[in-house]
Structures are given as structure tokens and as C-alpha cells.
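Take a minute with the sequence and C-alpha cells given here and flag any C-alpha cell that looks odd. Thanks in advance.
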Amino acid sequence: MWVWDLRRRTFTRLTRDEGPEQHPIWTPDGARVVFQSPDGMASTAADGTGTIEAVPNSERGSTPFSWTADGRLVFDFVSPDGRDIRVAPLDGSSPAETLLAGAFAEQRGTISPDGRWLAYESLESGEYQIYVRPFPDVDSARWQVSTAGGDHPRWSPDGGELFYRELSSDRLMAVAVTPSGAFEWDDPEPLFSVEPYLSGNARDFVVDRDDQRFLFKRPVQADTEESNRLVLVQHWDEELKRLVPVP
């Protein structure tokens, strides 16, 4: 796992294990990175120093996803019945608390910026839909926000919008919500197609802090030679002259 420094334009290697290490998220202060490892969740310093530390209360298949206002980690947990949503402090000072668990998958839980709402995707209707519940009292209410299937919920930085992928059309949808008071929302509005970008992984896109851009991870085809090659072209002008000769 690597970190790219936008200002210095350099890479820093964070991990060196052979097993899969994926789905990283920053801690709220930006000092560490939490990620899924073969044996559960782990964390490491964002500058690549120090040692990798196992995250307490996590087991194989646990996937970090978001943070509460008081700094607790919200993560997916693979249970015998499917996928549940749990929350726990990163330092293990108290046990993990199950937020949602049922006989169907409930996953990708993300807390609104003001800490009042939990958005997530659930398979309870037979197809994935986006739901919102009050947080932390998740059993007090529940609202279905998506209308034609949905996954990958993300809040805007100011909490005024909720984004998700509409499964029936592969479009990114935007739902305007009330930033305070009771939870109210408008009909979903389509933004653009995300068919080339979302592969179904835990964190295929993020919303930029300026609320004007999205960063997507574009999947590659693993069965093609080009998917795993990095090509460096030197003296490209000579190659151009060879391919397109001019008098």
C-alpha cells in the first residue's frame, strides 16, 4: 500500500506484506491510515514510519468505512448471516458495538458530517437500496432514499447532499437533504454515468472537500496484458517521426 504526496509528487510505501491489504481510509486527524488486512483491520502512520498495528475488535473480513463525530470507527463485519455494520474506538478502549445486523447484508455505513445520520446500503428488499437512520439511535427510524436500487453511499462535505450509484442505470445520483432538524430529502437527481468506474469494491470513489469534484478508482481488466504493465516512453519525438514521416 502506498501514499501519494500531492505537493511533493512522491510515493511513500506504507506496507510490505505479501497478503492483500486494501480499502484504506484516513483517520480524522490524517495522521494514520486504517485498512483491511488478511487477519482483520490494521493501521499505520501516514508518513510510513513506525510499525503496523492491529485494530482491536476486528476480525477477518472487517472493512473500515467511516468515522463518528467522536472518532470511533464504523466498519463492515462479515457475520454468519451476511454483512453487519459495527462501530468501535480505534484504540480498543471499549468493545465493538453492533449498529445493524440482520438476515441480509447491511454494509458501507457512513456517518453524516454533523454526526446525526447513518447512510448505508441493504439487501433487505431483494436488491441493494440506500437507507438512512438516525445516529446513534439507529432503531428509532429508517428511510429508504434510493428508488431504483443503490449502493456506494457518500455524504457531501457539508452534509447537504447524499450521493450513491443507482443500480438500474449505473448513474451517480444526488439527493438533497436538510442539514439540520428532522431528516427530509428530495427526489434523487442523476449526475452522470459511472459505469466505467465502479467495480463493487468498498471505496470506489470519494467526494472532494470542495464538494465540486469526485475521485474515482477505475478498475482494469485482469485478463489483459496491459492491465498490469507500467510503460515508460523515452524519446517519444523520435518515435513519432518514425511512425509519421514527413518530407
Remarks:
- Helices lie at 236-243.
- Residues 5 and 11 are 6 Å apart (CA to CA).
- The chain is about 5% helix and 40% strand.
